[in-house]
Design goal:
Elements (H helix, E strand, L loop, with lengths): L37 E6 L14 H7 L7 E3 L6 E3 L2 E6 L5 E6 L13 H19 L1 H6 L3 E8 L2 E6 L6 H4 L10 H4 L17 E7 L3 E6 L20 E6 L3 H9 L5 E2 L7 H6 L3 E6 L3 E7 L9 H10 L2 H9 L4 E2 L22 H10 L3 E2 L5 E3 L2 E2 L1 E6 L6 H13 L4 E6 L2 H9 L5 E6 L6 H6 L13 H9 L6 H17 L4 E2 L1 E2 L1 E6 L3 E2 L2 E2 L5 E2 L4 E2 L2
Parallel strand pairs: 1-10, 1-11, 18-19
Antiparallel strand pairs: 2-3, 4-5, 5-7, 6-7, 8-9, 9-10, 11-23, 12-23, 13-20, 13-21, 14-22, 15-16, 16-17, 24-27, 25-26
Length: 534
């Protein structure tokens, strides 16, 4: 089935994991896959680090995902966890112990074998060498890690000091991909230079930090994920990643056959790409959709009534229709619709400016002469900190600024560089922050809103929410865990801890020669099955 044309692509912001799959978009059979050839790919931003464990942005993960295999994989259609480097596994009833039975015969690209000790050294290095400062996602997945025991050469038992049911899904992510022993001993900075040795279907042929990367097919690769369409070696001989920041240049390069695929296809790019037989492939991201996160200790956002009024004051459909396009969706929950455990809460987020005005009236916020409300001499004004990591951020926030002004709320937009944004976010130095996080597991709610985790709201205890967020870590039954994640979504909204706006989608422009370029469960590209029609 042909996918509709994308109208805006994106880079996920500041900490990231993305979506549950898409077909290749082909309209007619192209015959059996043809091995060989070099795929030329244009990234919209430079990769930040060659190490999968330290990868954050989608543009970086498009590269690093190809060189590393994970213990498990996640089916992009169903969300089910499937075998990869581990043939099978057991989870203890208390979700503190995870035992993985590794596939025999797997080797890293330096010829060394995969063993249980490999798993141990990888996870130890993330916790003790990289730490959360350099590998925030990987470290968060290993929170409470006490160690890995090699039970025998092909059996690794990973243990935590607390229940950690999310870890099984985390074991499918590139951040917890398994590298060779020689690649785990370096410092964080040394691991960013392209010397990483994985067991994946591709290896680094060349890596130029901040500029380009070239991958070469791994000869003899025979241990692909159960989610791959074929087993054995990748079809492509090489993948050449270059950085092309200008969207028009990327689109023109596809239509003129200078590139085979590009990131972040914009609305105006689609006709040009399609005119020469190409297409734009789209997949929505799971995890937290884009939204505004209030710091509940600062200014008017300390008032729960103000936070409650923001939810119906935003016209999410107008954001999509005006700034983005039909391949994007209005957010309908603190989780994206492709996230396992998602609950549709769109009725709680229905656009109703009159309801917003009533809530503010009842709370004593009175319109002034310029239409902006005030209470006890305090003007209803606050800042929104954001970065341009996603191309649509500024235009979306400018429209939100107009929408909120209609109900008497003044918003000051505060754009920051990625580095400044991260520093201010980590220091909780903001009135509110605008971002998204990609992950195909509802535990992203805990890591974002948990009282003992990031808690960027700077909130105090909310017992029902705290119980739901942490109890879900103790439950291995998917249905029971999903029920708690559903409760947490509603409680996040009820307490005004996240004001959802739009769901992020990935939009990849591809030429007519590219076949079976696929998204994995977290919305990143997987090139193992990709081939070029000659």
């Amino acid at each position: 089935m042909k996918r509709p044309v994308a109208l805006l692509g994106a880079v996920a912001a500041v900490a990231t994991l993305a979506a549950c799959g898409s077909d290749s978009g082909d309209t007619a059979p192209a015959g059996p896959p043809q091995p060989g050839g070099t795929l030329r790919y244009g990234l919209s931003l430079a990769p930040t680090c060659s190490d999968p464990a330290q990868s954050g942005t989608n543009q970086t993960l498009y590269v690093t995902r190809q060189i590393v295999d994970s213990l498990t994989d996640q089916n992009p259609e169903t969300g089910a966890i499937t075998p990869w480097l581990a043939q099978s596994w057991e989870v203890s009833p208390d979700a503190k112990s995870f035992t993985f039975h590794l596939r025999p015969g797997v080797t890293f690209s330096d010829g060394t074998p995969l063993t249980a000790t490999s798993v141990q050294k990888n996870f130890d290095a993330i916790v003790r060498t990289l730490t959360g400062a350099k590998a925030p996602l990987a470290a968060s997945y290993l929170a409470g890690y006490t160690g890995t025991t090699p039970v025998d050469p092909l059996t690794a038992r990973v243990e935590f000091d607390r229940p950690n049911a999310q870890f099984l899904q985390a074991s499918s992510t590139p951040q917890l991909g398994i590298l060779a022993d020689a690649a785990t001993v370096g410092s964080a900075d040394e691991r960013c230079l392209g010397n990483n040795i994985g067991s994946g279907p591709f290896t680094y042929a060349e890596y130029k930090q901040g500029a380009s990367a070239t991958l070469a097919k791994r000869a003899g690769y025979a241990w692909g994920s159960a989610a791959f369409a074929h087993q054995g070696e990748a079809y492509l001989d090489r993948i050449e990643f270059t950085v092309v920041p200008e969207s028009g240049v990327r689109a023109g390069s596809v239509s003129s056959n200078q590139l085979d695929a590009v990131s972040d296809a914009l609305p105006q790019d689609a006709p040009q790409i399609e005119a020469t037989g190409g297409k734009v492939q789209v997949t929505p991201n799971p995890g937290l959709p884009f939204g505004i996160q209030p710091n509940v200790t600062r200014g008017p956002l300390r008032d729960a009534a103000v936070r409650a009024a923001l939810e119906p004051a935003i016209d999410r459909q107008e954001l999509v229709d005006t700034v983005l396009g039909p391949q994007f969706r209005p957010a309908s929950s603190p989780l994206g619709s492709k996230t396992p455990g998602y609950v549709d809460l769109s009725t709680s987020l229905r656009y109703d400016p009159e309801a917003a005005r009533r809530r503010l009236d009842q709370a004593g916020w009175v319109p002034g002469g310029d239409g902006i409300r005030a209470k006890d001499g305090v003007r209803l004004s606050f800042g929104i900190l954001f970065s341009r990591a996603f191309a649509g951020n500024q235009a979306i926030l400018e429209l939100i600024q107009q929408q909120l002004r209609k109900v008497g709320v003044d918003v000051q937009l505060q754009v920051a560089s990625d580095a400044e944004y991260t520093a201010r976010q980590n220091a909780k130095d903001f009135d509110s922050a605008y971002y998204n996080i990609t992950r195909a597991d509802g535990d992203i709610l805990r890591t974002t809103f948990g009282l003992a985790d990031r808690n960027l709201n700077a909130r105090g205890p909310i017992p029902p929410l705290d119980q739901a967020l942490y109890d879900q870590l103790q439950i291995t039954d998917p249905a029971a865990r999903a029920q708690l994640i559903g409760q947490a979504q509603q409680l996040v909204l009820d307490n005004g801890l996240w004001i959802p706006t739009i769901e992020l989608s990935q939009a990849i422009g591809v030429s007519g020669t590219v076949r079976d370029l696929k998204f994995e469960a977290s919305g990143r590209l997987q090139f193992h099955d990709t081939w070029l029609r000659k």
